[in-house]
Amino acid sequence: MSSTNKRKRDPADELICPITLELPWDPVTAEDGRIYDRISIETHINNHPRGLKSPITNKKMGKKLFPAIQHRNTIEILVENGVIVGDLAAKWEEKAAVEELLNNAEAGDSRAMYSLGKNYAHGHNGFKKDRKLAFQWYKRAHEAGNVYGTALTGVYLLNGWGTPKRERLGFIHVSAAATQGSNNAAYHLGMAFANGYHGLHVDKALAISWLEKAVEDCPYPDLIYERTEQARQKLAELKSS
């Protein structure tokens, strides 16, 4: 085969994890001399408690793993300088954004705490959907003074999502957030008064008052389009009845 037809080697070819076929975020060197993503090779090891063999050579190997820091640094430099591009680079950058978000949240950034809660709540950005973790991060955001976190802490308490249902405490949080200007909290209060949810008596006047706040401009907007439309429809029903 002529050299002109020979495929050029891509720098990423030697850097990807042979199990995931992605750039390893936490690369480690296994006893077979290959570099893997830590989670993928640990899973392989745990799935083979006896007679462990290399997933590449199929030869016997030990369980020891060694951090491949230089490998990670090389990947980071090549991605930052545009040498590695495409899906491999995009997935690496997504992981970097996740790590930054986690670090910021642990450092006390209430907005990052709230964002983590949303990621766990909806299973976005590579996070596994987990309402319990979502509630924990919303609660931490609330405790750090984040109004969005206060609203969602209240909603989760009202519904028993990721935490035991505590409606009285939920209403305290939702009411506090709505008073501060959260349209999400205002929506939940309005719908609760309109329909008698969570043990409340139906109160048309209060329902209209809170639902109007939910559809107006507010300091802390976090209401998805579908619920905004639901609020408008319920308002129209209440005002016409």
UniProtKB/TrEMBL annotation:
SUPFAM superfamilies: HCP-like, RING/U-box. InterPro entries: Sel1-like, Sel1_AlgK, TPR-like_helical_dom_sf, Ubox_domain, Znf_RING/FYVE/PHD. GO terms for biological process: protein ubiquitination. Coiled coil: none annotated. SMART domains: SEL1, Ubox. GO terms for molecular function: ubiquitin-protein transferase activity. Pfam families: Sel1, U-box. Residues 10-95 form the U-box domain. Belongs to the sel-1 family. PANTHER family: ERAD-ASSOCIATED E3 UBIQUITIN-PROTEIN LIGASE COMPONENT HRD3, SEL-1-LIKE PROTEIN. This is Sel1 domain protein repeat-containing protein. It comes from Seminavis robusta.
